Amino acid sequence: MAAENELGRRLKWWRERRGLSQLELAGAANTSQRHLSFIESGRTGASREMILRLAAALDLPLRQQNALLLSAGFAPAWRESGLDAPALAQISSALDFMLAQQEPYPALVVDRRWNLLRANKGAVRLTEFLLGAVPQGPINMAEALVSPEALRPTIVNWEEVTLYFLRGVQADALADGTVETRDLLRRLQAFPGVEALSRSLPASDPQPPVLIMHFQKSGANLRLFTTLATLGTPQDVTLQEIRIECFFPADEASARLMRDWAPLPPT
Q1: Residues in CB range of 205: below 8 A, 6 or more apart
Q2: pTM summary value
Q3: Which domain holds residue 251?
Q4: C-alpha–C-alpha distance, residues 230 and 217, integer Å
Q5: What are phi and psi of 127, to 5 degrees?
Q6: What pairing do the DSSP bridges indicate for beta strands 116-119 and 213-217?
Q7: Are residues 56 and 125 in the same domain?
Q8: Does 119 map to a domain?
Q9: Helix H segments across the chain?
Q10: How far apart are CA 94 and CA 74, in angstroms?
Q11: Looking at the domain assignment, is residue 78 inside a domain?
């Protein structure tokens, strides 16, 4: 009974978070409203199949699908592997290939909470230019962006960039419902000036097609925009949560500067 109550509480929490009525969720999961009501109230349990159907209808991340199953006493449906696991060898090679193809421009692999997992040489060179050296130990790219001790002093349009990024983390916190993402959001909002930005309105003036990050250091200017990619049809928690961020020059001067940083190929 305790497991049924825990499952019911979690399901109701997610349903309300998604803004769905019991009737809407039941229809999407091909079950009856009565059955869903009994599950949420703890009056009846749910099969493993039903839990996965409800999770899919709620568009839950794989990590949260596992949490639902565990709350009902079932084993997780989705594994969580390290990127260096033998089972992910082909995926790992593909990530390295994408990073290499982005040279001489920067590219990163991060997890859902912006912890840096991998970086190409272009990203290392950009970091060395902006900070003087690559930080040692674990790096969180979100915190590096907003911290006065990291990238913040080098970004000319820091407020605009941070506001856009902060809203992305807020959306992540709503989507995945995890304590870890919520904690990241709180850490970001605790940096000077960030909490006020979260209440700002977008600029009303006409905007360019993409947000340009304008870096400035030692008289040099870099204007970059980024793309974010994810792996299609992931069936592993780790793979669903990783992102590949590629930086591209927004003008020829920025492209030339980054090409000049790259070592010449051997002759």
Answers
A1: none
A2: 0.86
A3: 86-261
A4: 31
A5: -65, -45
A6: unpaired
A7: no
A8: yes
A9: 2-17, 22-28, 33-41, 48-57, 62-71, 89-101, 121-131, 141-146, 158-176, 179-189, 194-197, 237-241, 252-261
A10: 33
A11: no
